[in-house]
Design a protein that fits this description.
By secondary structure, this protein is of the alpha/beta class. It has two domains: about 160 residues, 3-Layer(aba) Sandwich (Rossmann fold); about 80 residues, Roll (Luciferase, domain 3). Helix content is about 30%, strand content about 25%. It is built from seven helices and twelve strands. Strands 3-4-5-6-7 form a five-stranded mixed beta sheet. Strands 8, 9, 10, 11 and 12 form a five-stranded antiparallel beta sheet that branches. Helix 6 links the parallel strand 4 and strand 5. Helix 1 crosses helix 2. The longest helix is centred in the N-terminal third of the chain and has 15 residues. It starts with a helix and ends with a strand. It comes from Streptomyces rhizosphaericus. This is Non-ribosomal peptide synthetase. Keywords: Phosphopantetheine, Phosphoprotein. InterPro entries: AMP-dep_synth/lig_dom, ANL_N_sf.
Length: about 240
């Protein structure tokens, strides 16, 4: 995937505007460098004066060890997939780890499951904010939502949110027509965060990046293959895959 620098710059600017933080904020560099979320972790940290704290591989592989490490290193922000977030929540509840410095958990890469243990973890830490970030490699993060501090107000299913700055999302039918709120359609992406295409694969690029009927001449949509619907609150809800 060929991603222009402007897309990353847009992501960093949005992230800083929404998440905040600065000098003194300690961010865990948890994500493997081969996963695109690592670019968000590293660049949003170093470009805004935060401190990047790197665990070793043994800590990354063990939820109990990771939970102790988060406590010992006074980590303020953690970016991790759903399975890791849920495992840390379970380990913290079982061990009694306060994680009192942890202010932000951002989940990406998987569907966020609002399990009973995650709800219990949040209930004991009302200062913590759980963010759900969505986006394929072809756009990186393109929608996001922040769950309330009180898990009693959480929905049964976590939404994937609304588009970030300078990006657009469309829920369309097979004829590229918008579907009404509540109706399931395929998610298409547009805007500053879109990749240029696939390196030396023009056929696949033409298949997945199609002409944008809603934008100016020459603009494109990325066809995600994800099925979603608009919720009553104006946020997107992930339903499944079109190819399953």
């Amino acid at each position: 995937v060929v991603m222009p620098a402007g897309a990353i710059a847009n992501l960093v600017a949005w992230h800083h505007g929404e998440i905040g933080g600065g000098a003194g904020t300690r961010v865990a560099q948890f994500t493997a460098i081969s996963f695109d979320v690592s670019a968000q972790e590293i660049l949003t940290t170093l470009l805004t004066g935060k401190t990047l704290v790197v665990p070793d591989d043994a800590v990354r592989r063990d939820a109990a060890a990771l939970t102790r490490w988060l406590e010992e290193h006074r980590i303020n922000e953690l970016y991790a997939p759903n399975l890791v977030v849920d495992a840390v929540a379970e380990a913290a509840v079982e061990s009694g780890a306060a994680l009192g410095e942890l202010r932000v958990i951002a989940q990406a890469g998987e569907a966020l499951a609002l399990t009973p243990r995650l709800r219990a973890f949040q209930a004991d830490r009302p200062w913590l904010r759980l963010h759900n970030h969505y986006g394929p490699t072809e756009s990186h993060v393109i929608t996001a939502t922040t769950l309330p501090g009180d898990p009693a107000t959480w929905p049964a299913t976590a939404p994937i949110g609304r588009p970030i700055w300078n990006d657009q999302v469309y829920v369309l039918d097979d004829a590229l027509g918008p579907v009404p709120p509540g109706v399931v359609g395929e998610l298409y992406l547009a805007g500053a965060g879109l990749a240029r295409g696939y390196l030396k694969r023009p056929g696949l690029t033409a298949e997945r990046f199609v002409a944008d009927p809603f934008g100016p001449a020459g603009s494109r949509l990325y066809r995600t293959g994800d099925l979603v619907r608009w919720g009553k609150d104006g946020q997107l809800v992930f339903v499944g895959r079109a190819d399953h």
